[in-house]
Amino acid sequence: MSEQKTRKEEHMTNQEQETIPQEEKETATTGQAATHEAGTEATDGKQKKEHQKHKKEKPSEKIVELEEALEGMKDKHLRLQAEFDNFRKRTLREKADLIKSGGESVLTAILPIVDDFERALVSMQEMADEDPSKVGFLLIYNKFRDFLKNNNVREIEAAGQLFDVDRHFAVTTIPSPTEELKGKIIDVIEKGYTLNDKVIRFAKVVIGE
User: Fold this and answer.
1) Does the pLDDT of residue 16 top 50, yes or no?
2) How is domain 152-209 classified at the architecture level of CATH?
3) Residue of 11, 31, 130, 138 with fewest CB within 10 Å of its CB?
4) The pTM of the whole model exceeds 0.70
5) Would you call 171 helix, strand, or coil by DSSP?
6) C-alpha distances in angstroms, 204 versus 89, 98, 183, 192?
């Protein structure tokens, strides 16, 4: 009986020895799991911080992008405005040139009519000033003259002036009757006119030599 008891104790001891490593193994496994879990939590915490940092940085990057886009739109707007201003100025200038050139041709066409009235009035010098024909001619002639004046058309001074190639056209030269008239205009064959200081018809003159 004592031998059976001894065997029983040995059997229990063997079971305990087998149980201890198993418990140690379970403890080790539990420790590893805890370590892994702690590591996972640390990694998750690090990723969470990085994500939060990224979220904080992202709005700043977005603001920079929006500011750059806004600057680009401002620059584009300024260029478009400058182009529009240039287009408007060019259009106004072309319109003014068109009106000016069109008006110049009309005014130039009137000049021969004024010449005819002046020649007619010369032939009427012996007529009485109260003569209806003379009065009518003078009335129409003065209206033409006023029309030209109101449109900045001016007669070029010629008689007695020094010859100016930019304003006068020499038809011929004749011996000067006096010394002081040499190189000057003795006679005007056809009057010259300017429009806004631009010569639209040269004065045809005779020069003394």
Assistant:
1) no
2) Roll (2.30)
3) 130
4) no
5) strand
6) 38, 28, 15, 7
